Amino acid sequence: MRSAHRPVWAQAWVTASCLSIGLASQACRGDRWIIAGDWLSESRDAGLPSDSDAAPTAEVCPTVASLDAERQGGNPAPDVDARFAGVWRGNLGGDAAAGFPSAQIELRIADGGIHSLRFDAPAAAPALEPSRGYLCTQSADGVRCATPSGYVGGYSYALEAVMSRGDVLSFQIVNSDPWDGWCRLQAAQAWPDRTQPCGYVFGAGPPGSDNIAGAAGCARVTADGAATAIDCEVMYALQRCRCATDGCVAQPADVIEVGLRLTDGLLIGSLWYEGDLDAAGVTFARP
Fold it and tell me: What is the number of structural domains in the chain?
């Protein structure tokens, strides 16, 4: 049963985002709001004693190795026409371009190698301190992770599900990947949850759901209304993580869909902000 404690609403800086080709109208739509209950899939039984006092076991519950294998297994082998292979240099246009790490982008479509996308900007590489919010900064306006667009400058995003169909090149970016190294330093915790196959749900930090209370700071609130204070920057960074019995990794569900059309030797499309709040046209050419 939910507590009578009313959740505090706050618009998320950390939201799902998407890229879409200019000729398609099926870009991501709608803002995402963080409310008490969003961060941790906390069931009605989470935090309650389980039917057994046994700890979660690797044979039943997910491990970091199994999460890595699951992601690798879900990423099909690239299927790309040779016309798309090589290095492309892109430029963003329009007012929205100012919210990205840089207006210049490098796209690499390798022939049997690793595909990547990188914004030409100094790499944002603060120290990997697990107790501090990595790449997330709090200000009077709220907490922002990376840039207004949500992308991290200087980071080479590994592309997944790379394929081409006719003149359209498509791929996916896991938006949380820049946080992977930081997530792997987090100490995973387990809470009983009878709805889960192994009887537990996993996370980092105090149990409960993310709650933002303005000047009062941030907290994790359990189903019975108990609140534990948590640093806001850490809370937002942890939203980029997925945990198992023995550690955490980047949240692979934060997927950005990308589509670019090959026209007269150019790759043309649009690059969207997180939450689809704004977009900038992008054109790639071979250097």
Answer: 1
